[in-house]
């Protein structure tokens, strides 16, 4: 008699195939999550860049305010953190809709609108305008401003980001880092 040869898969082979398939699916899901996180960070970086560019252009357009000494330049007073001040206070007069404004009123209006944009578009965002000759510390942007009268004006915009493990992304001092720093230029 001839022995029957079993053909087909054993239960062990099926289990191994299911485990390999599950590992492949988990890897695909992890890759998709990483791609979504990167897309979100890129969108925030783009928004921060647009905010910094817009503020730099507003400052350049208000040349009268920009020629003032640092103590009188209202733009240099901007240090807004949406986490600690969720609703910015509006100035007495907003320069909108063709209303004639002086340099100081226009600067206050620009600062208010920038605060609103940061509050609306960046998660717990922050914006700072200052003079800073050394933007970078250890290869990373920093919030601290260390410039004197000859240092360029800089617009720094950032948000409270997170690492892939969910912990806050911070610098060596424990502060969250700016996402964008745009030099407006050396004035005076």
Q: What's the pLDDT, averaged over the residues? A: 83
Q: Compute the number of helices.
A: 3
Write down the Rg. Answer: 26 Å
Task: Detail the poorly predicted runs.
Answer: none
Largest beta sheet: strand ordering: 1-2-5-6
Estimate the strand proportion.
5-15%
Major beta-sheet overview: 4 strands, antiparallel
Given the helix and strand composition, which structural class is it?
Answer: alpha+beta
- Characterize the overall form: elongated
Number of strands: 6
State the end-to-end CA separation.
Answer: 105 Å
SSE order in H/E notation?
HHEHEEEEE
Pfam families: N_methyl (PF07963), Tt1218-like (PF22150)
InterPro entries: N_methyl_site, Pilus_4_PilV, Tt1218-like_dom
Transmembrane segments: 14-36
Domain Type IV pilin Tt1218-like: 30-110
Q: Layout of SSEs?
A:
Layout: H1 11-61, H2 63-66, E1 79-81, H3 103-121, E2 126-131, E3 136-137, E4 140-141, E5 153-158, E6 178-185
Antiparallel strand pairs: 1-2, 2-5, 3-4, 5-6
Helix pairs in contact: 1-3
Description:
- With 188 residues, the chain is of the alpha+beta class.
- 39% of the residues lie in helices and 14% in strands.
- It contains three helices and six strands; from the N terminus they run H-H-E-H-E-E-E-E-E.
- The strands form two sheets. Strands 1-2-5-6 form a four-stranded antiparallel beta sheet, covered by helices on one side.
- Helix 1 runs antiparallel to helix 3.
- It is elongated.
- The model has no long low-confidence stretch (mean pLDDT 83).
- It comes from Duganella aceris.
- InterPro entries: N_methyl_site (IPR012902), Pilus_4_PilV (IPR013362), Tt1218-like_dom (IPR054402).
- Keywords: Membrane, Transmembrane, Transmembrane helix.
- This is Type IV pilus modification protein PilV.
């Amino acid at each position: 008699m001839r022995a029957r040869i079993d053909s087909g898969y054993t239960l062990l082979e099926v289990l191994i195939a299911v485990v390999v398939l599950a590992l492949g699916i988990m890897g695909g899901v992890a890759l998709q999550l990483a791609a979504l996180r990167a897309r979100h960070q890129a969108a925030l970086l783009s928004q921060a860049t647009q905010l910094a560019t817009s503020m730099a252009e507003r400052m350049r357009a208000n040349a009268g305010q920009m020629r003032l000494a640092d103590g009188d330049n209202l733009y240099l007073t901007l240090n807004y953190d949406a986490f600690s001040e969720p609703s910015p206070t509006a100035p007495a007069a907003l320069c909108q809709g063709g209303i004639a404004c002086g340099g100081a009123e226009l600067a206050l209006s620009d600062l208010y609108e920038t605060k609103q944009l940061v509050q609306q578009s960046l998660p717990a965002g922050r914006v700072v305008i200052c003079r800073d000759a050394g933007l970078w510390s250890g290869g990373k942007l920093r919030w601290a401003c260390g410039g004197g009268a000859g240092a360029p004006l800089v617009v720094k915009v950032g948000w409270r980001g997170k690492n892939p493990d969910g912990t806050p992304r911070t610098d060596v001092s424990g502060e969250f880092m700016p996402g964008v720093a745009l030099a407006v230029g050396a004035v005076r």
